[in-house]
Amino acid sequence: MEPKKIYGILSEKFGGKIKQFVENTLPPSVLVETDAIADVCRFLKEGDGLDFTSLMCLSGVDLKEQGRMAVVYHLHSMKQKHKITIKVELDRNNPHVQTVEQVWPGANWYEREAYDLLGIVFDGHSDLRRILLPEDWEGHPLRKDYVYPKRYHTWDV
Amino acid sequence: MTNADEKFMQVNMGPQHPSTHGVLRLLVTTDGEVLSGVKPYIGYLHRALEKIAERVTYPQFSPFTDRLDYLASMNCNLAYAMTVEKLLNIEVPRRAQILRVIMAELNRISSHLIAFGSFSSDMGAFTPFLFGIREREFINDLFEIACGARLTYNYIRIGGVSKDIPGGFIEKTREFLDYFPAKIKEYNELLSYNAIFIKRLANIAVISPDDAFDYGITGPNLRASGIKWDLRREEPYLIYNELDFDIPVGKGEMGKTGDAWDRYMMRIYEMEQSAKIVRQCLDLLAPGDYTAKVSKVLKPPAGEVYVRAENPRGELGFYLISDGSTKPYRLKIRAPSFANLSIIPKLARGVMIADLVAIIGSLDIILPEIDR
């Protein structure tokens, strides 16, 4: 199915919750209202003819200039062989978004990574802890304004 | 680490345990010999590659991709180069494309050889490891002829490859291809169809197709579950659409489809196919440019792409955002082993302690690309 058609189906089902369609990204992306993301993802996985079986990648992005953060979901369907990008934008000072762990269990670790490196909080996540950095690490390194620590415990960094 | 009145015992496996394929810690909760839960702790090899990517120029990041999956550096170079080329709209010359396929497939063989070898030593058979290393040496020699390096090549660059292959490479590669099939036969006789080996792996840790989709499992691990999905065939890049090769899938030859033995065997089958691809590519190789004309300073237009390629361990994806400057705005690396490892807590529930080693080995994870 063409991404444009998927956008059409989503708009019909969710109305104003689907904000924008951007064609020049690869794969083309759909911007979704933050509070609808879990429902949209479940529909994408279970909806007729959509069958997005797998979450290829989930990334957090710091959009400092706009004062926002983004979570980007790259989806793929092994059955229908189509792809799409879903995006949500969050308030940079208080980034919260629903988890999609219940839709694709594999999202668990990706969300932990986005929390660890960017400080995005995934509401409803079963085990939201740091994953790559030590548990007592301060700050979120992939933020554009991250200040590098001088010391960590007894080590000079 | 246990209370006398508790039924369960918690044991650490790793961070440096020979069968964890790197520095991986598994916090194992056991009820006697049976596992009631496994919690993986990763990040010991975290080198902040995604942060580094935002601080170096596009070509400068290429050597860092060598350090993702260091057993398949060529494939990682290739995926990164393809991502940047997509943003820049660069057309890669045909000779460079063929050279890329040759290197990627040779590297796939050498990576699977290590998978085969280390898995066998996990299972308590040490000799096959030496066999695997012996053949891998041959491939390392080939890479040394081509680019001077034996492990981290940085050979596939944005636009093509770093230099053309010198004289002697083709003959030496043909020599390897003539020598290799007999060795695969030897591996099968030695290990694959060994009754004890089969007993340890058949019906262990079966991954159903739905679980594989849910956890984003890709590569040989997905195909072992009976799903015929290979990017080289489904979304052909380079010259893969001209080549004749099979996509082996798991059939449950020794037990259920998608068990540990199927996952092991996929790698043996894939080595045969890769050898077949390299042979075809050597025949196709005609004189031409080994790289496109790429300017010294790369400034891709603002935009974003997600590009993936079929690595030996699954799909390696790069999500690259450009803001029009010389450095990436954001580079997210989607490593296949990261997804493949995340299924372990599910797989390892209710199995025997000794099977945990079989599960890790059969998934063929590699830590540097998980921790990045």
What is the secondary structure topology, with strand pairs?
The complex is a heterodimer of chains A (157) and B (372).
Chain A: H1 3-14, E1 18-22, E2 29-32, H2 37-46, E3 54-63, E4 68-76, E5 83-91, E6 96-98, H3 107-118, E7 121-123, E8 151-152, E9 155-156
Parallel strand pairs in A: 2-5, 6-7
Antiparallel strand pairs in A: 1-2, 3-4, 4-5, 8-9
Chain B: E1 9-13, E2 25-31, E3 34-41, H1 49-53, H2 58-66, H3 73-88, H4 94-122, H5 127-147, E4 156-157, E5 160-161, H6 169-192, H7 195-201, H8 209-214, H9 220-224, H10 231-234, H11 260-284, E6 303-311, E7 314-322, E8 328-334, H12 336-342, H13 344-347, H14 353-363, H15 367-371
Helix pairs in contact in B: 2-3, 3-4, 4-5, 4-11, 4-14, 5-6, 6-11, 11-14
Brief synopsis:
The complex is a heterodimer of chains A (157) and B (372). Chain A has 157 residues and is α/β, with parallel strands linked by helices.
Beta-strand content of chain B: 5-15%
**Main β-sheet description of chain A:** 5 strands, mixed
Strand proportion of chain A, as a percent range, falls in: 25-35%
Query: How many alpha or pi helices of chain B?
Result: 15
- The general outline of chain B is globular
Strand-pairing-aware structural class of chain B: alpha+beta
Q: What is the multimeric organization of the chains shown? A: heterodimer
What is the string of SSEs of chain B from the N terminus onward? Answer: EEEHHHHHEEHHHHHHEEEHHHH
Report the CATH architecture of chain A.
2-Layer Sandwich
Strands side by side in the biggest sheet of chain B: 1-2-3
Spans of chain A of at least 5 consecutive residues whose pLDDT stays below 50 are: none
